[in-house]
Design goal:
With 74 residues, the chain is mainly alpha-helical. The chain contains three helices and no strands.
Length: 74
């Protein structure tokens, strides 16, 4: 996403830099750049297995509650 900003006539350098920083901040370019800068750590094999086991337990619990007619809300 390209942002094109030109300096206005009789605009001081500090005012121009302030205006540029405001435009960049409002556009969300920096937020996107920071999100992509740090990569999320991937789960190792043990973490994947534990996650899968947890999902199965939760699904079984939900199915059991549905069969018994129990509310799913906490």
């Amino acid at each position: 996403m390209a942002i094109k900003i030109t300096k206005k006539d009789k605009e001081s350098t500090s005012a121009f830099l302030y205006r540029v920083s405001q435009v960049i901040q409002k556009s969300g370019v920096l937020l996107e750049a920071n999100k992509h800068q740090t990569a999320a750590r991937k789960n190792n094999e043990r973490g994947k297995k534990l996650s899968a086991i947890h999902k199965l337990k939760v699904r079984k619990e939900i199915e059991h509650k549905k069969k018994m007619g129990i509310s799913l809300k906490k």
